Amino acid sequence: MDKGHQVEYLFDKKMALQYDSWYQSAAGRHLQRMESDLILDLLRPAYGQSLLDVGCGTGNHLLLFRQMGLEVTGVDPSEAMLGVAREKLGHLADLRLATAEDLPFDDNSFDVVTLITSLEFSPRPFLALAEAFRVARATVFIGALNSLSANGIHRKLEAVFRDTVYRRARFYSVWELGYMVRRILGLCKVEWGSAVFFPLPLHGWDRFFCRWIPRRRNPFGAFLGMRVEILYTHRAALHPLGKGWMSPRRAEVSPAGTVARAPGSGK
After folding, report:
1. What is the assigned CATH class of domain 3-232?
2. E strands along 27-70, which residues?
3. 110 in Cβ contact with 137 (< 8 Å)
4. Domain spans of the chain?
5. Bridge partner list, 73
6. Per-10-residue mean pLDDT for the chain, 267 residues long?
7. By three-state DSSP, how is residue 49 classified?
8. What's the rounded Cα separation, in Å, for the pair 128 and 226?
9. Does pTM surpass 0.85?
């Protein structure tokens, strides 16, 4: 079973409906509100920008970005998840079946690329990030489940005793995300923060105390957000690059290779 079919099997129609309906619960609404606030605070999207959401799922974040006036595109390896997203968004978004590791777009196609709770399920997270940087012109936003948070620890422990979707997920710390970003991209500007500091069953406490808990550069929230500003755009190389262009460690991330170039150089 290849990676696309693995995700399709994991996020089937039943899971897609359960996932979407959970966000209608009190805990789900709170989590989505806190995630959205952090995303918009860090990302600062501008009206009319083009945005690609990698692993768009049932389209909740695409709907948020569309309401902000962005031109949105979403990809997901699960046809079931995309089916729910199509019902939700209709003609408001361009939705395509694709994996994060093989995006069907040209280099530098989008102003913004987001991966929001999708990197956790990628079998090749370095390649998924490299693809996001390849198709982005200016900014990549990574939203991830935090391995150091109370919720992250609770979810992983729960998955030990019963089969949940989180048994197949890899959680990240902000330092792990930063390491991957800089290993792939090198020179870049990074801003980060987190949200949701109490376990979700205590979402009422989180809602009350969140006004006093700083989000910026706080590594303990359940949802990590990282904005990466690309100082050099990327294009795919037809052949592997020589030693003078990049270190072997960077070259191994993308088999096709990537070439850094100054924005607007056209080369």
Report:
1. alpha beta
2. 50-54
3. yes
4. 3-232
5. 52, 94
6. 51 82 89 96 97 97 97 96 95 97 98 97 96 97 95 74 78 96 92 94 88 94 96 54 37 39 39
7. coil
8. 15
9. no
